[in-house]
Amino acid sequence: MKKLLTVLCMTLISLLVNAQEIILPLWEGIPPLQKDMGLEEKAVEEGIIRIENVQIPQIEVFLPSKQMRTGQAVVIFPGGGYHILAYDWEGRDFAKWLNTQGIVGIVVKYRLPDSKSLTDAKEVPLLDAQRAVRLVRHHAEEWKIDPARVGVLGFSAGGHLASTVSTQYAQEVDRQKDAVDALSARPDFSILAYPVISFRDASAHSGSRKNLIGENASQELIDRFSSELNVTAETPPTFLVHAQDDGGVPIQNSLLYYDALNANKVPASLHIYPKGGHGFGFGLGKGPVSGWRDVLLDWMVDLK
């Protein structure tokens, strides 16, 4: 028995030692669409870590042990209404859980559009999201990732960003480019948890819309950032999860996106639970919704 316990302990220690964490800036020097104003990022821990006023966008990479790696990677966009990032609850915690499944988890600390240092705020989150996907592919060989198995995951407003990069991955802004830009920003799959999708009518999450495109946005801008209107046959396969009693972001957001995916014959899996509210994360202690991660894993295994 002692020998068995020793072997088990050594195995666990080996797995922990082999798991790695890497932090990389998205951009070299001052990021595009930003001016140096000497502003500082703010992080507040009140039960969860909330990050505001991001000035140096980055990815935090969580690598599973070498023995467990599947080749899949998930780029994670925490939510927070485009005002803050719920960085651990909808970021690090999920990346670490993905590691237990042999999946590389990458948390994106993306810039938020209410920062005064940005020169074209509405374009910045998408620009950072595209860069994150490309940067993961740039390091695919080093991190033992299959570059054709890189997906995105977004929660709430992070779900809006994930759906935006899934539908506008080829969108460009005028900026200096480098070797990373030669890689595709199209995700291979998309996971959207209680996502903001539409900026139109009653479905809109007013806080996210105001923070990203302003109170008096034109109809053209509203439509451009309503992801259900931008789905094509090239949009990646998508998994959606939402709670029917979500009082923050109505389930109509997921329904609209699912209908658009279906109309364009894009493989889609929609899961609506009667209870869970908004921001349920792992769903622990919230009844049946706590099982959504198991359903997600089955879906990820079946991806072609």
Automatic annotation (TrEMBL):
<dbReference type="GO" id="GO:0016787">
    <property type="term" value="F:hydrolase activity"/>
</dbReference>
<keyword id="KW-0378">Hydrolase</keyword>
<protein>
    <submittedName>
        <fullName>Acetyl esterase/lipase</fullName>
    </submittedName>
</protein>
<dbReference type="InterPro" id="IPR050300">
    <property type="entry name" value="GDXG_lipolytic_enzyme"/>
</dbReference>
<dbReference type="InterPro" id="IPR049492">
    <property type="entry name" value="BD-FAE-like_dom"/>
</dbReference>
<keyword id="KW-0732">Signal</keyword>
<dbReference type="InterPro" id="IPR029058">
    <property type="entry name" value="AB_hydrolase_fold"/>
</dbReference>
<feature type="signal peptide">
    <location>
        <begin position="1"/>
        <end position="19"/>
    </location>
</feature>
<dbReference type="Pfam" id="PF20434">
    <property type="entry name" value="BD-FAE"/>
</dbReference>
<feature type="domain" description="BD-FAE-like">
    <location>
        <begin position="60"/>
        <end position="260"/>
    </location>
</feature>
